[in-house]
Structure formats: C-alpha cells, structure tokens
Amino acid sequence: MNINEWKHMFKLDPAKEISDEDLDKVCESGTDAIIVGGTDDVTLDGVLDLLSRIRRAHMVPVVLEISNEEALTPGFDYYFVPLVLNSKEKKYVMDIQQKAIKEYIDMMEYSEVYFEGYCILNPEAKAFQHTNCELPETDDVKAYAYMAEHVFHLPIFYVEYSGIYGDTEVVREVKAELDKTKLFYGGGIETPEQAKEMKEHADAIIVGNSIYTNLKQALKTVDAVKRE
Ligand SMILES: CC(C)=CCC/C(C)=C/CC/C(C)=C/CC/C(C)=C/CC/C(C)=C/CC/C(C)=C/CC/C(C)=C/COP(=O)(O)OP(=O)(O)O
Ligand SMILES: O=P(O)(O)OC[C@@H](O)CO
Ligand SMILES: [Mg+2]
Fold first, then answer.
1. Which atom of ligand 1 is nearest to the CA of 42?
2. Which of 88-92, 107-111, 113-117 is the least confident region?
3. What pLDDT shows up at residue 39?
C-alpha cells in the first residue's frame, strides 16, 4: 500500500523494552506500518534490535524516523526525516538535515525518504523541549501547514502532541488548509474512540506510548480507523 493511503501507524521507541509476544501483536495488528523512533536515548543497537526482531517474522512495512545520525542504518523500507517547523532554532528546522543530506546524498533513495513538517504542540513533550519549540496559536499552526504544503511542498505535516491527547478543533482546522500534503496526527491516543475521533480529521494517526501502557486497548485503535 502507498504511504499516501496509510491510516494507522504504531510508533515503537527503541529506548523502551517490548517482549517478543507484544511485538508480534503490534506487527500482526493490521496497522499500515511500524515507525521506529523516539527523542531520547535512541541508539544504533536499539534501532537494529527492533528492526531485526520485526523483520524475523513479519511483513509489515518498517519506517525509521530519524532523530539522530548515530542511529541511522540501512535496511528500513522508508525513512521519515522531521523538520521541526515551530522550533526557535534553525538547526532543528533545516540545518541538521542539510548537513546529513550533504553526507548521505549518494545513499539516499528518494522514493524511500519522506520529509515531515513537524509542529509540536505539547510543551511538556521531550521533543518540544529538546528542539526548543515555541507554542503556536491555532492560526500559527495553520500558517505552518500552509508553508508545509505550498512553500516547502512536503509530503507530510505532523501535528504532534506526544504524550497528551490533542485538540480536535486544531486538527480539523489544520486539515482544512491541506490538500496534497498528508496530515499525520500523534499524541495521547489510548482508546478506539480517540483514534476514530482524530482520524475524522487527520489522514493518518500514530499510536506510541499506549503500546507500552495498555497494549490491549492500543491494538483496538487499528480496527477503529481502518473499518471506517
Ligand atoms: C546510512 C543510510 C542508511 C542512509 C540512508 C539515506 C538516508 C535516509 C539519509 C537521511 C539523511 C537525513 C536527512 C537525516 C536526518 C538526520 C537528522 C538527525 C534529523 C534530525 C531530526 C530532528 C530535528 C529530530 C528531533 C526530535 C524529533 C522531532 C523526533 C521525532 C520523534 C518524536 C517526536 C518522538 C516522540 O518522542 P518520544 O521519545 O516518544 O517521547 P516520550 O518518551 O516522552 O513518549
Ligand atoms: O506516544 P504518543 O503520545 O501516542 O504519541 C505518538 C507519536 O506522535 C509520538 O511521536
Ligand atoms: Mg513515546
């Protein structure tokens, strides 16, 4: 299935433990893809461990969302590269990425690399603090979405509330700004009802932390959005 048609993804954090039994459930859940990514303590060992355990028995597409160069490795189906649009520091918007492109340009397969315009809206999130973000108003978020699509022509705009369930009205208004650029929503989805509610506005939803806190419920988010 084409990335543009994905509706549901699970995000596994290489810094967190998951048993083989739970990993099998996540991979066989019917989700469209597994994203491997996190903010802190993302190591090459952690990334390779997850990749090899997923590949050993499963066909689900696997994406590396790159958070640092040390943990970059071949072998993934796709690579997602965040550009943190609401960071106060240009390095997180484009400089780190520009330097990495300079280094890896000969290895980059363009059909496998997707740049994501991130807008991080939870000030308590590690990613918000790590990338020195500014909390935008709804109209600012909409303007970032406009820029993602019409200025930078990015394939993905990611409304990130990592750790908390976000504001559906913000997501609805942002979606109205977008046409070609896909809207990803992530943050605080724990129940099938929340998954369904956010998916009414976003093109795809991402479920992360609840894999580790209540897997049984997290697994139900797949059917909630794929059987709509
Ligand atoms: C060698 C090889 C295989 C080459 C292949 C070619 C290729 C793909 C090249 C890519 C080159 C390139 C452009 C790389 C980019 C490198 C890079 C370091 C980019 C920086 C991205 C960035 C600014 C990351 C900051 C953090 C961030 C936004 C992370 C996103 C994930 C996220 C928000 C996770 C949620 O956090 P979590 O850890 O879950 O938080 P909690 O624990 O609180 O839940
Ligand atoms: O961990 P949660 O809060 O589900 O968020 C998912 C994802 O958007 C994190 O990057
Ligand atoms: Mg997390």
1. 38
2. 107-111
3. 95
Tell me how far the alpha carbon of residue 225 lies from the centroid of ligand 1, in angstroms: 26
Q: What is the distance between the alpha carbons of residues 121 and 97, in angstroms, rounded to a whole number?
A: 21
* pLDDT at residue 227 greater than cutoff 90: no
Answer whether 126 contacts ligand 2 (Cβ < 6 A): no
Q: Is 149 helix (H, G, I), strand (E, B) or coil?
A: helix
User: What is the residue type of 6?
Assistant: W
Q: For residue range 126-170, what is the model confidence (pLDDT) as tens digits?
A: 999 999 999 999 999 999 999 999 999 999 999 999 999 999 999
CB-based contact 175:202 (threshold 8 Å): yes
- Answer yes or no: is the C-beta of 67 below 6 A from any ligand 1 atom: yes
Closest atom of ligand 1 to CA, residue 92: 23
Topology, domain 3-226: TIM Barrel (3.20.20)
Confirm if 88 and 134 have CB atoms less than 8 A apart: yes
Q: Where are the domains of the chain?
A: 3-226
- 56's tokens: 């050993």
Buried b / exposed e over 187-199, threshold 16 CB at 10 Å, is bbbbbbebbbbbb
Q: Tokens 């790590």 belong to which residue?
A: 130
Provide, rounded to the nearest whole percent, the portion of the chain with pLDDT above 70.
Answer: 100
